[in-house]
Write a structure and sequence with these properties.
The protein has 314 residues and is mainly α. The chain is 68% helix and 0% strand. The chain has one domain. The termini are far apart.
Length: 314
């Protein structure tokens, strides 16, 4: 049975006021605790909700994304069950929280026009087809190179991912692409463009990564691989995520805001680092190379801005 949040999403119809009220009601309750500065709810809740979401679309998005994902992950963590290779326990429904939140807030603020724009970014890209090849194949190439140092894992292990059925390597990649859309529609498709409206891509990426990393917190108590991390490893997890986020920002902005391109990268990266084949040094090597590349992009972007040149990250 799906989590309550998904029942709520399916229950929402064309009435935009209802969408606004659902999203902002949670946001306002958080605001009353001091997390978000906002005005008091007026006598007419729908009108007040509409104004609040339009003034704070990014904050509304983050609140909705956390509520939807965490409504599944927190009960999972509290149940004592853990997501691991070979178990039927799954965290996958929570991965679609960012996409669900993006569609909710976009519809509330922009209506159908915004939804069409967001959906279009999932299938289109600007630039040469080499971007598609790079996004899909670069993580696989890094994985192949890493095997030269630590050995070649079993091909069967490359098709085993905690939380998803064992269906083989290629079918698993398509499943990972589907779950990657669940994240990237929200983080890159919605949040990043909004954050970049008022700040450079570098600082927007830093802010986004903080929210993206915090969103993962319940999974550290639900995923066996995360639960075993030491404090120092968690710091490394954030630094690697930030480096990867710079790469994703670079690809997203370079392709005209294509969610398709970043979702392809996300799927291939998860295939080589989060499957059983990527356990240990293989995943570490791939992640470190991506992280170094991401920080190199950030450094080049900062240098270009200081010299008055076109930014690297976009």
């Amino acid at each position: 049975m799906p989590p309550p949040s998904f029942e709520i999403i399916r229950a929402i119809h064309a009435d935009r006021a209802v969408v606004l009220y659902l999203v902002v009601l949670a946001g306002d309750r958080w605001a009353r605790s001091g997390c978000i500065m906002t005005t008091a709810i007026a006598r007419h809740p729908f009108a007040s909700a509409a104004g609040l979401v339009r003034r704070h679309p990014v904050a509304s998005y983050f609140v909705a994304a956390y509520l939807i994902s965490w409504s599944y992950w927190i009960p999972l963590a509290l149940s004592g069950k853990r997501v691991d290779f070979g178990t039927s326990v799954t965290h996958v429904p929570g991965l679609f929280g960012p996409a669900a939140a993006a569609f909710l807030v976009t519809f509330a603020v922009e209506g159908r026009t915004g939804i069409h724009r967001l959906l279009a970014s999932c299938v289109r890209f600007q630039g040469p087809w080499s971007w598609i090849a790079f996004a899909t194949l670069a993580p696989l190439a890094l994985f192949a190179a890493a095997t030269l140092f630590v050995g070649v894992p079993s091909l069967k292990d490359l098709g085993i991912f905690g939380g998803l059925p064992q269906v083989g390597v290629l079918p698993l990649w398509f499943l990972l692409l589907f779950t990657s859309y669940g994240e990237e529609i929200g983080w890159r498709g919605f949040a990043l463009p909004h954050l970049q409206q008022r700040r450079p891509a570098l600082s927007a990426t830093l802010l986004l990564t903080c929210a993206w990393a915090a969103w993962h917190v319940p999974t550290f108590f639900a995923l066996a691989g995360y639960e075993q991390m030491a404090a120092a490893t968690i710091v490394g997890f954030f630094l690697a995520m930030l480096g990867g986020a710079f790469v994703l920002t670079w690809m997203f902005n370079s392709t005209g805001g294509s969610v398709l391109v970043v979702a392809l990268w996300h799927a291939s990266f998860n295939l080589v680092t989060a499957t059983r084949a990527g356990r240990g040094n293989l995943a570490a090597i791939v992640s470190i190379v991506v992280m170094i590349f991401g920080y190199a992009l950030a450094a080049a972007d900062l240098r270009a801005r200081r010299r008055g040149r076109a930014p690297i990250l976009g």
